[in-house]
Every structure is written in C-alpha cells, then in structure tokens.
Amino acid sequence: MEDEIVSVIPIHHSDVLSPNVHVHQFPLLARPLQIPPSAATSGKRIRARIKPVARKLEIQVPADTRPEIWNQDKSKQFGAARLEDDREKNQGGSSTKQRDGEEPRLTEVRLQSEQIPQQGVYMLGVIHDDRLHLIPVSETHQFRPTLTYLDLTSRKSGRSKGGAGTDSDSDDYPPDPDEPVPMVVAPKKEKKPAEGKEVQMSARKLVEDRNNNIQGGMSAIRREMLLAMRAVEEEPWQAIEFCDSGTDESNQVFQSILSDNEERLECKTGITTLLKSIRGL
Fold first, then answer.
1. Does a structural domain hold residue 200?
2. What is 73-108 written as a DSSP string?
3. What are the φ and ψ backbone dihedral angles of 51, each rounded to 5 degrees?
4. Do the beta carbons of residue 237 and residue 113 sit within 8 Å?
5. What is the pLDDT of residues 126-185, one digit of tens each?
6. Number of domains forming the structure of the chain
7. Strand partners, 50
8. Residue 80 domain flag
9. For range 213-219, the mean pLDDT
10. Residue 175 CB partners (closer than 8 Å, separation 6+)
11. Domain enclosing residue 16, as ranges
C-alpha cells in the first residue's frame, strides 16, 4: 500500500547566512540548553567564547547551586583545581569575575566543541507558511563537558600518597586462625653477573620502504598531534555573545533565513552524473 500524498509544498533555498549556519549537538537528551532557575534569579547568564583558528567553541552554563543538589565543599575543591588547570594551559579562566580574597568555586559547567567532518552536504530544513526552506549547514560540532580539572585533582592526590602502598598493604590485621599458615619460601641465591661482551652497533637513517611507509612514522604523527594540541591551547579565547532561542536577536536571525524569492531554480545535472558522484554506489 502506497503512502497517500497529503500536500505538495514549494521548496525555497537560502544561503544568506552561509557559511555561518552550524549544527550544535549537546548531551542533554530531552532537556533544552537553558540557565537553571536558581542561577537566573541571581542574574547569571550563559556565556560563550571561540577560538576561530582551531574552530573550537565553549559554552559556560551556570551551575544549579541549590543546597539540596549542590556540594559546597566539592565546589571549592574543584574550583581551585580548575583555576590551576586554566593557568597551566593558558585558558583564560572563567568569564565570571572573582572578588579579591574570595575562595575559588566551581560555579559553571563548561561545554567544549569538537568539529565533526561532514559527509556530503548537510541542509537545515524549516517548514514555515506551507513552504520548505532549505539552508546549507557548513559545520557540525559536538559539545561535551570539560573535566580536565579532575585530572589535576587525581595527580595531586597521587602525589600526596607518595610511595605509600595500598590500603591492604598498610593495614595491619591479626591473622585468621582458620586460614592455613602460608609457606615460607627460601630466598633465592644471587646469581653471579655474567661477563660483559663487546658489541658493535651502527646507526642509520630512516628510509622509505617499498610501500612508501616511513619507518618511525608513528613518532612523526605523535609529534604533529602534540604540536596541534599545543597550538590549540596557545590560541586565546575570544568572547562572543550567547543568544537564547527566545531573544529578539535569535528571532531576527530566524526570520532572515526564510526566503521570499520566487525565482525558479533549474537543475542542470543529469541523473547519471548525479549517481556517479555519490560515493559507494
């Protein structure tokens, strides 16, 4: 049984905002990206910043600091760790100003983006006034919480323990009478060191093999990755304005993507050429 055609609507193509239309994906499930009520009451708002060269975005969402769901002691501990982590990586810190003498606190959740390569051409579709408006999407970004301050906390806790053993090693419990007595193993006799022998070695340059694979290529790849990571960390953040979906600025941008142009577009690509251009067919 074929599906019934309900209606036929015209399609409008608009690239007035190209290449500034992005798809941003957040790990929020069914919840919208909005400020918690407790933070909104105190006058806080969502902030954003960007690294244009590295194509990285960061959104700072104020945390919900209600006493029933927020641990103030952990907030101080993680706030100090994040402040130190920002200084080590030259990240500029939080956009929220801190008073003189005030103890640092974790007052926000940071979401940083990773650009996802696009396969083909992505389009944003909006049905408005019985018309389908198609807008090209230039970039896709996935946002995840940044928890690098936890690594710093773990390193500090590891150093504080020093060379101490585990809890099972340090605790001194009396022996269990029901357990069998462990066998005493006699210490092994030390072996005499073998006589040294003269070994001749030679160094040679890394050369390409028949498959044009450079020996030691993993080291070169690792070096490039480290240089890329350093370049991202050294690039300064630039503050940008975050506009929620209900603001006037967002409504103006939404209205600008709706095209009223009645000029008809003609497809000059044949079906054979189109099918050949699709990978995997």
1. no
2. HHHHHHHHHHHHHHHHHT----SS---TTPPP---E
3. -115, 100
4. no
5. 998 889 999 999 999 999 998 888 887 888 777 666 655 444 444 444 555 545 566 666
6. 1
7. 57, 238
8. yes
9. 59
10. none
11. 11-158+233-277
Distance CA 24, CA 200 (A): 60
Its pTM stands at 0.67
C-alpha closest to that of 142 among 109, 110, 112: 112
* Residues 77-136: tens digit of each pLDDT: 888 888 888 887 767 656 555 666 677 888 889 999 999 998 888 999 999 888 999 999
What's the helix, strand, coil split of the chain in %, to 5?
Answer: 25, 20, 55
| Dist. CA 63–CA 68, nearest whole Å | 13
In the prediction, which pLDDT does 175 show?
54
Residue 62 exposed, middle or buried by CB count within 10 Å (0-12, 13-18, 19+): buried
128 falls within a domain: yes
Q: What span, in angstroms and rounded, lies between the C-alpha atoms of 133 and 125?
A: 6
Lookup result for tokens 């100090």: 80
Q: State the alpha helices, DSSP H only, in the chain.
A: 37-41, 72-89, 148-161, 167-170, 217-234, 248-256, 271-277
- The residue to which tokens 């806790």 are assigned: 157
Q: CB-based contacts of 120: which residues, under 8 Å, 6+ apart?
A: none
Q: Which long-range contacts (C-beta less than 8 Å, at least 24 apart) are formed by 74-77?
A: 74/106, 75/105, 75/106, 75/107, 76/103, 76/104, 76/105, 76/106, 77/153
